[in-house]
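Title: [Solved] Glycosyl hydrolase 3D structure

Original question kept below for reference.
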Amino acid sequence: MQPPAPAPARTLRFGANYTPSRGWFHHWLDFDADEVAADLDSIAALGLDHVRVFPLWPVFQPNRALIRPRAVEQLVALVDAAAERGLDVNVDGLQGHLSSFDFLPSWTATWHRRNIFRDPEVVAGQEEYLHALAAALAGRPNFLGMTVGNEVNQFSGPPHPDPDPVSPGEAGRWLERMLAACERGAPGRLHLHAEYDAVWFRDGHPFTPAQAARLGAATAVHSWVFNGTAQRHGRTGAATEQHAAYLIELSKAWAADPHRPVWLQEVGAPAPLIPPEHAAAFTAATLAAALDCPDLWGVTWWCSHDVSRDLADFPEPEYGLGLLANDRRPKPAAAEVARVAAAWRGRAHRPPARTTALVLDGGGGPAAPGRAACAPGGAFFEAWAVLAADGVRPAAVLAEAAADPAHLSARGITEVLRVRDVVRRPRSDT
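Solution (posted by the thread starter after getting help):
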């Protein structure tokens, strides 16, 4: 057998999800180029190299047959302003869902209520919209590519109060069609899709781990420890500080490419589970653990600027998640992100392989029926956390791949453990 190909050395990317300091994402309604420039200056001053930006779908496409030229021009102006400051840009198309608010155009709601994943006219409108944004930016060298939308899987089932039901097969075909529209608009860019963690944790959820880990140019993971992790393990528990690393490694269990890039596209320090005075320490620990994962594309912190207290009805944790305050002053967590970004600037990222893998039983198959075991409190999650606390650097492997020498070799895995093995494993502190 040939030795495994080494993981490619990548230059890590460090960025922020751009939340405007004035007006939040409602800034598209009265776009102010000077305010945007000042925001981007404050992001660039941290030494970051990219931003992820969020056009609001109803603002950009208020009618199925109308993609507003002026809105697209403003998006292009934002991308150009970012280029002037050395920042690359990823654009999320279908917004979709942001910070507990849904933004759907009126032609999908109430009297025009149609399933956003199934209705042929709605899907054709989405396809045209994503193509239009990608095509408008295709000539910009600092345009990284499109993300289909922000956590659009949350519309597909519980706990959404008015879901758009879809089957796994339909969800996969929808994703393929949206990604193809992005590729036609801007060939060869980094086009991907992104889901919230139900894709990894919820049995029966129609968006599947295999879709997340195989469709598009990279796998996106969004890491939020308010999902039960910090509640169970505390702010300094290994499961909490390594939650982002856990999702990165969990995603690789379903990847067909052993070195598929994984983008930690959202991660933040949510109060009160991570109190503000401990946000910098949590940030440092989270980044250290994530950067210990092979095949990491980069980290994009959520978010750039705090949500203004002048805006109403946000969940309390959303107001303080920024690296920068509303007056654009950096907060302590920003210093940690800037420090790590500076330390890695120009360096090749090739951490050693994670040679020990934990086996996920029931994770394979089209529906991934064993996903609940991967959620906080689940047997797989908790066993992974035990290994991480013991310094093992665990990877994850599906049961059907655990007996495949070629698969294990390609990933550098030399030891395979099952959950029951972890229960019996001697602890490092005994």
